[in-house]
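To fix ideas, we give here one paired sequence and structure record:
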Amino acid sequence: MGRSGLICAFLLAVCCCSRRAAGVPGEAEQPEPELVEVEVGHTALLKCGLSHAQGNLSHVDWFSVHKEKRMLIFRVRQGQGQSEPGEYHNRLSLQDKGTTLVLTGVTPHDDRIFTCQGKRRAQEHRIRLRVYKAPEEPSIQVNTLGISVNSEEPVEVATCVGRNGYPVPQVTWYKNGQSLKEEKNRVHIQSSQTEESNGLFTLRSVLQAQVSKEDKDAQFYCELSYRLPSGNHMKESKEVTVPVFYPAERVWLEVEPEGMLKEGDRVEIRCLADGNPQPPFSIIKQNLHTREMEEERTDDNGVLVLDPAQKEHSGRYECQGLDLETTTSLQSDQQELVVNYVSDVRVSPAAPESQEGSSLTLNCEAESNQDLQFQWLREKTGKLLAKGQALQLHNLKREEGGGYRCLASVPSVPGLNRSQLVNVAIFGPPWMALREKKMWVKENSVLNLSCEASGHPRPSIVWSIQGTANEQDQEPQSVLSVLNVLVTPELLETGAECVASNSLGRNTTIIFLELDSNRTSNLSTSTVSPPARANGTSTEKKLTEPESKGVVIVAVTVCVLVLALLGAVLYFFYKKGKLPCGRSGKQEMERNTSI
């Protein structure tokens, strides 16, 4: 080729380059595709943008373009559509008079470009279908093994997982509400993604960091940011706290419950340290006699339990700990533990006894590490009789025998008290609850007869009839005897007598038995008198109702007879003229008539 040929070739190349640079009609760069956004599972509407001027929409071919691969998926001929075999078969249809292709059941695999093309290749409209799927709530797993503050490199704090999102969401880590950024030798975030068979993505992000003692309560969480057709959204995981290990610098002792302690309380003594984990502890108590420190036996958690607490547990305690990471021995300050107490209460005399009408003094004693208050209470009623250590009883009556309680308490320690019961015995013969009583019974039935007596010395009870007797102690000077008997005609006739006796005398209770079958008729005409007390100074016998009625009838009869007799006498004297008042009156009347 000559010089002229070379020049021609050069000019041709320059012309071609200038033509390509300037652009040739029909070969200009294609415009940006129309954007259509839809969520997974929804329906996408792909509107063909070819105008009537560019071609007849009754003849259109639809293509999907993915990874530079163009595939025919739908044909439109004379306004009728036909789906091509393949992944879009049975998912495509037409609407809006054939201008819109409807794609149902959108999946992540549909995230691509779709084109509609007329008869001529130049007649083409491109649509960019963007598919979105919100990820599930992010899950977070914390490093349960913990992190030491002495670690020289970032250590895994937690892992965040966001499943089934599309496209891959963005992850942001937070500590105490502040976002974390990559920081050399301090913070490192490593994220990865996995595409599932359904086209969705699972994001996995690992946060690694160096921690300090101040991070022991820090709250970590992750946030997933993603987009939907409606806009940008985010989801947060729950907050987690990672175990942070750091050496202890101080050890101290705690006692529960707080405040004043008393005997009988459940007391727990535990050691604590400002390190994590807590070092192994031992609890030491100072011997009050030898002043030496002695190790106490603790439970599996290193806690000394005093249950119940006793005054012997009082003393000075301290904790000793050994930090296993630094092998440093730690010791707490000594703390004094005081268990307040009241000793056993003693009453003198221990078995008091006295004659009726005399006086008696009871004394009460007890010891405590606090100021004591003494009270005397009547056991039966709980009535407060006196305050102080001594109780004076004057002009004693039989009824004043029985229980007296001395209560020793510590006002400054609520609930701390002890008491002692003593029974006062009053000398005297047996004292019966009832002198006599009546019982309604049925013949041939089994009956329990009871008899109660008291006295000092304690009386014994004997029955006048045969039966099975059972004695029950009521109080130290009282006894209740219950006799089990069969109701026979002989028993109905004789009744029963209970005899109580001691060295100072005897007393009785008589029990009358009446058949229950006669009770109704008897009650209609008579009333049973109440049982007489056995120990009254006198007993007044009252008339029963039948007796009182008989007396009234007799009195009325006598009065009638007296009046009748008196009338007969008066009539006799009148006839004989022995009544001067009557006769003078008659003569005066005759005299006046004759005049």
